């Protein structure tokens, strides 16, 4: 209980949460009804059935199949706003101070929802979180790697006005990893580097893919952060490079357990990263699907690793340092 209070108070930053991954049954079913969405015949119809699915994912793809159908209930600007606002209030109750949140516009564009609807709804929730909860926020647009790079470039074009206004602060890459290696998206990342050099570049890598996916994300996409990065531990030279460059990994412990990236949270290479000086943060990924928000993920790590207070302070400090905010805000967060 003492450690619970300490971890609650610790200045936590989240760098890896998909807003669509915060859509749980309590909002999914009412939205389906409100928007007259007929869910597929094989989609769970009760909270219990949905929970059973959540507890039995075979792998990343098995989760993604449910995730893309689930987000199909999001139609209006208000829906996107409500989703993000519910996340911010939960995260705030968990003691979160700063949130860098992913979203997947292609999962909405292909259903005929406009970029404007998605971004306006999320932005409204971000503004409200800053004003009413004191949380700083950043939106990071992710490209779906199972779609062609051409689609990614078109999506970047649609998002231009929002990058220019400073409403979107980053570019990420997510979805099915192994069949779609980083090099497929070189052009998308090069475009961003050339036309929007102020934007944070990140990519999911080394969740199911091997260390070469991390190398290629760093070398070919020029990302400054790696999302997941668990498989970095299989390559000592990569560990050295991550430490030297102080590239932060956004670790998602409960996600890794639920998607069977590891058999046990205790198997995550956290001690090795700390020993080698590789910075990482602790994150919830898709909290509605994986059974826990940010504090639950901290507690799950504490349960397996039993870190002392200085170690936790170091982890929190690395999270603040790796955040995409100005120095003044970092000083405030620490
Ligand atoms: N989309 C949402 N969550 C994801 C994850 N953990 N890996 C890849 N794509 C995702
Ligand atoms: Zn993710």
TrEMBL record:
<feature type="binding site">
    <location>
        <position position="16"/>
    </location>
    <ligand>
        <name>Zn(2+)</name>
    </ligand>
</feature>
<dbReference type="GO" id="GO:0000034">
    <property type="term" value="F:adenine deaminase activity"/>
</dbReference>
<keyword id="KW-0539">Nucleus</keyword>
<dbReference type="GO" id="GO:0008270">
    <property type="term" value="F:zinc ion binding"/>
</dbReference>
<dbReference type="InterPro" id="IPR032466">
    <property type="entry name" value="Metal_Hydrolase"/>
</dbReference>
<dbReference type="GO" id="GO:0009117">
    <property type="term" value="P:nucleotide metabolic process"/>
</dbReference>
<comment type="function">
    <text>Catalyzes the hydrolytic deamination of adenine to hypoxanthine. Plays an important role in the purine salvage pathway and in nitrogen catabolism.</text>
</comment>
<keyword id="KW-0378">Hydrolase</keyword>
<feature type="site" description="Important for catalytic activity">
    <location>
        <position position="228"/>
    </location>
</feature>
<keyword id="KW-0479">Metal-binding</keyword>
<dbReference type="GO" id="GO:0005634">
    <property type="term" value="C:nucleus"/>
</dbReference>
<comment type="similarity">
    <text>Belongs to the metallo-dependent hydrolases superfamily. Adenosine and AMP deaminases family. Adenine deaminase type 2 subfamily.</text>
</comment>
<feature type="binding site">
    <location>
        <position position="286"/>
    </location>
    <ligand>
        <name>substrate</name>
    </ligand>
</feature>
<dbReference type="GO" id="GO:0005829">
    <property type="term" value="C:cytosol"/>
</dbReference>
<feature type="binding site">
    <location>
        <position position="285"/>
    </location>
    <ligand>
        <name>Zn(2+)</name>
    </ligand>
</feature>
<dbReference type="InterPro" id="IPR006330">
    <property type="entry name" value="Ado/ade_deaminase"/>
</dbReference>
<feature type="binding site">
    <location>
        <position position="18"/>
    </location>
    <ligand>
        <name>Zn(2+)</name>
    </ligand>
</feature>
<dbReference type="GO" id="GO:0009168">
    <property type="term" value="P:purine ribonucleoside monophosphate biosynthetic process"/>
</dbReference>
<feature type="binding site">
    <location>
        <position position="204"/>
    </location>
    <ligand>
        <name>Zn(2+)</name>
    </ligand>
</feature>
<feature type="active site" description="Proton donor">
    <location>
        <position position="207"/>
    </location>
</feature>
<feature type="domain" description="Adenosine deaminase">
    <location>
        <begin position="11"/>
        <end position="334"/>
    </location>
</feature>
<keyword id="KW-0862">Zinc</keyword>
<dbReference type="Pfam" id="PF00962">
    <property type="entry name" value="A_deaminase"/>
</dbReference>
<dbReference type="InterPro" id="IPR001365">
    <property type="entry name" value="A_deaminase_dom"/>
</dbReference>
<dbReference type="GO" id="GO:0043103">
    <property type="term" value="P:hypoxanthine salvage"/>
</dbReference>
<dbReference type="GO" id="GO:0006146">
    <property type="term" value="P:adenine catabolic process"/>
</dbReference>
<keyword id="KW-0546">Nucleotide metabolism</keyword>
<keyword id="KW-0963">Cytoplasm</keyword>
<dbReference type="InterPro" id="IPR028892">
    <property type="entry name" value="ADE"/>
</dbReference>
<dbReference type="InterPro" id="IPR006650">
    <property type="entry name" value="A/AMP_deam_AS"/>
</dbReference>
<protein>
    <recommendedName>
        <fullName>Adenine deaminase</fullName>
        <ecNumber>3.5.4.2</ecNumber>
    </recommendedName>
</protein>
């Amino acid at each position: 209980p003492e450690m619970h209070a300490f971890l609650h108070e610790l200045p936590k930053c989240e760098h890896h949460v998909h807003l669509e991954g915060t859509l749980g049954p309590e909002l999914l079913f009412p939205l389906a009804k409100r928007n007259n969405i007929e869910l597929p015949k094989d989609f769970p119809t009760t909270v219990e059935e949905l929970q059973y699915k959540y507890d039995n994912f075979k792998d990343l793809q098995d989760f993604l199949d449910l995730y893309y159908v689930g987000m199909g209930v999001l139609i209006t600007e208000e829906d996107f706003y409500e989703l993000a606002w519910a996340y911010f209030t939960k995260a705030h109750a968990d003691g979160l101070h700063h949130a860098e949140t992913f979203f997947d516009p292609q999962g909405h564009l292909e259903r005929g929802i406009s970029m404007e609807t998605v971004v306006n709804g999320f932005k409204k929730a971000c503004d409200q979180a800053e004003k009413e909860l004191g949380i700083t926020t950043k939106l990071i647009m992710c490209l779906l790697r199972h779609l062609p790079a051409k689609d990614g470039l078109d999506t970047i074009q649609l998002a231009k006005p929002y990058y220019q206004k400073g409403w979107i602060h980053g570019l990420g890459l997510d979805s099915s990893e192994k069949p779609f290696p980083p090099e497929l998206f070189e052009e998308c990342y090069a475009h961003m580097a050339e036309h929007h050099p102020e934007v944070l570049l990140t990519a999911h890598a080394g969740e199911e893919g091997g260390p070469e996916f991390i190398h290629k994300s760093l070398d070919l996409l020029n990302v400054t952060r790696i999302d997941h990065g668990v498989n970095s531990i299989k390559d000592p030279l990569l560990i050295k490079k991550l430490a030297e460059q102080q590239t932060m990994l956004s670790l998602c412990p409960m996600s890794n357990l639920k998607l069977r990236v590891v058999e046990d949270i205790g198997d995550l290479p956290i001690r090795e990263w700390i020993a080698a000086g590789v910075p990482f943060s602790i994150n919830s990924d898709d909290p509605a699907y994986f059974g826990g928000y940010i504090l639950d993920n901290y507690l799950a790590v504490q349960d397996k690793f039993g870190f002392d207070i200085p170690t936790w302070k170091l982890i929190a400090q690395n999270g603040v340092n790796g955040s995409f905010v100005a120095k003044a805000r970092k000083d405030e967060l620490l």
